[in-house]
Amino acid sequence: MQSKNKPRPTASERYHIERVAALPCVVCGEPGPSHVHEPDQGLWFVSLPLCPPCHTGPEGWHGTRQRWKLRRMSELQAINETLRELT
Q: CA angle, corner 17, sides to 12 and 20, nearest 5?
């Protein structure tokens, strides 16, 4: 769902988003398609592929982040791993 407070992604951002969504979850490895999490609104080129539990689940990024803590994964490490997978 598109937020009202940010511009629509450009064509190159949409292409990048599609590539990220096809990746497995960067935290737990669940096969894609994945949710695409942006660390800050509109920062699509550093977005992360996350399965629903690791993204919006009670123990996911928008919850307690317990799934992330158990795997000792930071958002910066997740960005790095995502970029590694895309190259």
A: 130
The DSSP 8-state label assigned to residue 42 in this structure reads: T
Give mean pLDDT in consecutive 10-residue pieces for the chain, a chain of 87 residues.
75 96 97 94 93 96 94 95 94
- Residue 68 contacts residue 62 (beta carbons within 8 Å): no
Q: Which residues pair with 39 in a beta bridge?
A: none
**What is the model's pLDDT at position 5?**
73
Q: Is 34 left (phi over 0), alpha (psi -120 to 50) or beta?
A: beta
Q: Which residues contact 11 (CB under 8 A, 6 or more apart)?
A: none
